[in-house]
Amino acid sequence: MQAGFGRTGTHFWGFETQGVIPDIVTLAKGIGNGCPLAAVVTTPQIAGVLARRIHFNTFGGNPVVCAQGKAVLEVIEKEKLQANARAIGNHIITGLEKLKRKHNIIGDVRGRGLMIGIELVKDRITKEPAKSECARVLESCKDLGLLLAKAGFTETSSGLPRPCA
Predict the structure, then answer these.
(1) Ranges of each domain in the chain
(2) Which of 8, 59, 96, 145 lies 20 to 30 Å from 110 when distance is taken between CA atoms?
(3) Got the DSSP string for 93-148?
(4) Alpha-carbon gap, residue 104 to 153, rounded angstroms
(5) Predicted confidence (pLDDT) at residue 58 exceeds the cutoff of 80
(6) Is the model's pTM score more than 0.70?
């Protein structure tokens, strides 16, 4: 979801950057722009099976939010928000690369459009995560009005990796 609606700057859906075509794509949040709307896009074969089954959803077919979803898609296209994501993202990545050259805590910068990741490390060779520093950066950014998310892997008590958010 977060890699959808043109946010990568080069494709409308993040999976398109990988050259794959999924069997099912689910959409939510972004398509409703605050209204309760979600959608499922799938292959004709899967859709045909679903059409022969009974299924239930709370807001299914609500014409008001469907119109809002259509309007969201029209605005993304009309205002060229995908191209904007590419331009702004390229600008941000360029700036982050400059910061990387100055600060060893930045292990890597990668992304497309506005889907950008910054790896904070204690050591660029071992790639040991800079966990406490990351927490301070997130808090400082929040205090300045910039909301960021933390993602990656952390260890469980058993020593196995688990995603962290």
Answers:
(1) 14-79, 96-164
(2) 145
(3) HHHHHHHHHH-TTEEEEEEETTEEEEEEBS-TTT--B-HHHHHHHHHHHHHTT---
(4) 20
(5) no
(6) yes
